[in-house]
Design brief:
The structure holds two protein chains of two kinds. By secondary structure, chain A is of the alpha/beta class. Helix content of chain A is about 40%, strand content about 25%. Chain A has a six-stranded mixed sheet, with helices on both faces. A four-stranded antiparallel sheet of chain A has the order 2-1-4-5, covered by helices on one side. In chain A, strands 11-14-13-12 form a four-stranded mixed sheet. The longest helix of chain B has about 35 residues, at about 10-40. In chain B, about 85% of the residues lie in helices and about 0% in strands. In chain B, about 40% of the residues are buried. In chain B, α5 (about 75-100) crosses α7, α6 (about 105-115) packs across α7 and α8 (about 160-170) packs antiparallel against α9. The chains are: A alpha/beta, B mainly alpha. The interface of A and B includes residues 52, 79 and 91 of A.
């Protein structure tokens, strides 16, 4: 339940020298957030839009739940897949509530259920319903519009989400906040998400796995850490900035590098980090405070110690 | 002014004929313009030849065009109505195509991607978004039709033009005044009514007044 499989998927547009998507085969597991990353024109958006049949492949097959999507009516298929696009694409003549209610209406839910769902979703994306329900998109900021866009895509409770550079046109601070929201929502909802991006940091931050594409083909499909430490070719190496050690540290958690608490441990006044924080933040804290070691806490209980040496040796080991 | 007050029956009849011609014209014109505009919206290359032709039709003087149509449709209101339909096409089709192409492509993509059928996209998204521009077109078309319909009297179609032409022939200034005032009031009233509709149908205005 919830997987997406691509089998030898190719799409050729007439009048183009090479296929936009070329022999793509891969599988996205249920509940996984996969970022499709690549330079513009690499076919990442085209690949995404074949999943909800906005484009039809020239050859190959796409299955969701093991079922060939060609056998489903496009409208029925799309109602099962949440879709978020860059410019939000909210309906300017509908209120926030009506925008969110579109798919439930298409699915012919009863009115009271739709209303409850709208409020539930607005709450989920942190837009208090009483304040935002009756506003029009033009009265919202770009970030708020995209929150509504996400709520609208989630409205029919789809198992799948397609997100086409949803934060591409949003300022850096709001973008980071929205990325945090996506991670929180994903932890809560466990959707199968395909997320198109050209932003490496976004991909590293969000993706359970990253599908790197170039010129219509898959170059590498792996976890963020493996992409950084074992790039398949110079293209991936350069795209991800694999030499950037600090970037790698951002993907490693403190608890994997720390040392267990010694028996005679005394906390004193050491700066503390959370066990689930990443090593990049820990390093930053060491450099900023000048403290020789950090106290690692898990839910406010000390569980270990972390020094600069621990970070260095762990990073070296991870890169071996 | 005296003529107006003393002959409410006659004025009422002529006003009714005038309104009838104008309304029939608008209904037929809209029914013709919507499919033409949809076709242009789908096949963009049609825009230049179709708009060009309609533009040329618009430049033909109304009197000449109606005379041209009399052998086909006879000396009656039909010829006048056909001529008015032809004139208003350029206005309606232009406004409709501008309105349709003015819809944000992201909005249309979203509606498709969410699983709306073409029919649902038309009624839920395209119609409401095009409506303000469309009503603006209908408003201008209505005023043009009201003006041209006065000439209908020359072709046995009746209408308020009757008063004008009678007045000129019999040198009755009061009749000319009566006709002019009634036509003007009618044009202003229809214009105001449609302007109100136009404002009401505009989503951005709704947003501003909330």
């Amino acid at each position: 339940m919830g997987s997406i499989q691509f089998e030898q998927v190719t799409l050729e547009f007439s009048g183009m020298s090479r296929p936009a998507v070329n022999q793509v085969s891969c599988e996205v597991a249920s509940g996984e957030l996969v970022v499709i990353l690549g330079p513009s024109g690499c076919g990442k958006t085209t690949l995404l839009k074949m999943v909800n049949r906005l484009y039809e492949p020239t050859s190959g097959r796409i299955r969701i739940d093991g079922q060939d999507i060609k056998r489903l009516k496009p409208t029925k298929l799309r109602q099962k897949i949440g879709y978020v696009i860059q410019q939000s694409g909210l309906f300017p003549h509908m209120t926030v509530a009506d925008n969110v209610a579109v798919v439930p209406k298409l699915l012919k839910w009863p009115q009271p259920q739709i209303q409850a769902r709208v409020d539930e979703l607005l709450q989920l994306v942190k837009l208090p319903p009483t304040e935002y329900r009756d506003r029009y998109p033009a009265q919202l900021s770009g970030g708020q519009q995209q929150r509504v866009g996400i709520a609208r895509a989630l409205a029919g409770d789809p198992a799948y989400m397609l997100m086409d550079e949803p934060f591409g046109a949003i300022d850096a601070i709001t973008r980071t906040a929205l990325q945090t929201e996506i991670l929180r929502l994903q932890q809560q909802l466990q959707k199968t998400i395909l997320f198109v991006s050209h932003d490496v940091d976004e991909a590293l931050r969000l993706g359970d796995r990253i599908l790197v594409m170039n010129a219509g083909k898959i170059v590498q499909f792996d976890t963020p850490f493996n992409l950084l430490t074992q790039p398949a070719d110079p293209f991936v190496h350069e795209l991800l900035g694999a030499d950037d050690m600090v970037r790698q540290l951002g993907l490693l958690t403190v608890n994997s590098a720390m040392m267990a608490l010694p028996d005679n441990y005394q906390n004193g006044s050491k700066p503390t980090v959370n066990a689930v924080d990443n090593l990049r933040d820990a390093l930053s804290l060491i450099l900023r405070t000048g403290a020789p070691e950090l106290s690692v806490v898990d839910q406010d209980k000390p569980v270990g110690l972390l020094t600069l040496e621990h970070i260095r040796s762990y990073a070296a080991e991870a890169n071996r | 002014m005296g003529y107006l007050l003393n002959n409410p029956g006659e004025i009422g009849l002529l006003l009714w004929q005038h309104l009838r011609m104008t309304s029939i014209t608008l209904i037929i014109a809209i029914a013709v313009a919507v499919p033409i505009a949809s076709l242009i919206n789908r096949y963009r290359w049609l825009s230049v030849p179709v708009m060009g032709t309609l533009g040329v039709v618009y430049t033909i003087p109304s009197l000449a065009l109606i005379i041209f149509l009399v052998p086909v449709f006879g000396l009656n209101a039909t010829s006048v109505i056909v001529a008015m339909v032809l004139y208003t096409q350029v206005i309606l089709v232009r406004n409709l195509t501008v309105g349709l192409s003015g819809i944000d492509p992201a909005v249309l993509e979203a509606s498709r991607g969410m699983g709306m059928s073409p029919w649902q996209r038309w009624w839920w998204v395209q119609v409401p978004l095009v409506l303000p521009v469309f009503v603006a077109g209908v408003r201008i078309a209505a005023v043009v039709a009201i003006a041209i319909a006065t000439i209908g009297a020359k072709f046995n179609a009746g209408g308020l033009g009757q008063l004008l032409f009678d007045g000129i022939q019999t040198n009755r200034i009061d009749k000319i005044w009566a006709g002019s005032i009634t036509v003007a009031v009618l044009a202003f009233a229809i214009n105001a009514l449609l302007l109100w509709l136009e404002r009401r149908s505009s989503p951005t205005r709704k947003a501003q007044t909330e």
